[in-house]
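Running co-folding for guanosine-5'-triphosphate.
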Amino acid sequence: MKIKTAEFVISNTDYKKGPTDGKPEYAFIGRSNVGKSSLINMLTNHKKLAKTSGKPGKTQLINHFVINDEWYIVDLPGYGYAKASKQSRAKWEKFIVEYLTNSKSLVTIFVLLDSRLEPQKIDLEFMNWCGEKELPFSMVFTKIDKLSSTQLQKNMAKYRKEMLKYWAELPPLFTTSSESKFGQEKMLNYIGDLNSQIIP
Ligand code: GTP
Ligand code: MG
């Protein structure tokens, strides 16, 4: 799939105030600082479509971007930000959970995982929660430019092993770098294939 246009639409904390035109939505989620906003910019060939930051906790709202006037990318705040207060974490839970469980147009969730790290409890818990709620998701390993391919294979193997303790089969897997643009075509083609099954 080619990106012709990518535009910011709306930010909010209430999923009911988001777009209601039924275009397919693809949500990007993962630990704070894992590279969600950077990946969105990489996929869309934009430098500043989604706001990025070296400090965790940058994205605070549900952000909709419309792509090719056909589908939405949804940038979400990260989870597991250690410095967030209990109160703001509870608020996070509520509005993200409401969006993810109530959105009628959500096609799939891209769960971003830092490829440099061992399997993280919070990520495994989130993916298991998606399973309980029957929400389809993919695993997207980020920042692969930061480690050797041997190390990447090792870390991914650990993730596979860990996931297979809970799951009969693995979800789709992507490896990406927002620096080198690795993974762009595969992810866009995956989205394009899903869209072609949905958009008349
Ligand atoms: P929150 O909005 O705070 O939840 O973070 P986020 O997941 O949106 O992360 P963001 O895209 O803002 O990136 C966090 C930091 O990681 C920034 O300093 C990015 O430049 C860096 N980063 C993101 N992706 C990559 C990547 O593929 N390679 C490298 N080397 N750095 C990356
Ligand atoms: Mg962000």
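Result summary
The radius of gyration is 16 Å.
Residues 120 and 184 are 24 Å apart (CA to CA).
Job closed.
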